[in-house]
Amino acid sequence: MEYTLSNGRISVTLTTLGGTFSSIRDAAGTERLWQPNPDVWTGQAPICFPICGGLRDGHATTLSGKEVELPRHGFARKHEFALGEKDDGSVSLVLESDEKTLAQYPFPFRLVARYQLEGDGIRVTYAVTNTGTEPMPFFVGGHPAFRVPVRDGESYDDYRIEFEHEETCDVPTPEVDTGLIDEAHRMAGPQKGATLPLAHELFSVAETIYDRLESREVTLSNADGSVLLRETFPDMPYLIVWSKPTGDFVAIEPWSGLSTCSDEDDVLEHKRGCIVAAPGETVERGFSIRLS
Asked: For the CA atoms of the chain, what is the radius of gyration?
């Protein structure tokens, strides 16, 4: 099932499969969201929950001794969400734990993905409620992928990501085979000050993991300096920039946590950025996208 929100400045379509975007169009009707291509990548904008990235061997334990078995990015992206609330400017899609999720992640939960139009943008809020009786460790993040290039006559190399601040941070090394993070071998970030030039070669090995970023806002721009979109993520500590070497898209992913790092053990609560919700507590994280 799909639901569309539109106000004449932006039109957004949400799908209940994965509870996320299937289309983001600007006022001219131009599609800005990557559209699936089975030869490149079939995703678009999956919700990462209850983990972001991957676990070592897909496995972790909790401080209370529970066993967790999860694929990369968790399971929310593969599940059907239910409609929560809808009005002219917003939609809420809901995923609740069931026998299948509890077998992988033994914590009862309710995940509400809320989408609210704001002028020429959309605010995304993930509200995670611990519906169980024990503390619940989790992670949540967005994975939106945007078309690059957007305009006829442009190339991928015409585009760049501009950071809110000048960035001098280094970045850890992704482990291509496992999807985990080699924290012991860090390297200079590929950005040049506040600018990250896009090129397919940038993604020939893996993603860029910004775990020490100062900026909480980035823009996607083209060669003439025109801003195509702005993404803001004030309460997400990490940003992943990813694509496929043959993909005409860039994913700009705000996450609350990361894949298991080389200096971490396999206890879920010991992972960077772990959020622990008390019984009955609702924790909200999110980000916003504004078109230009």
From this structure: 18
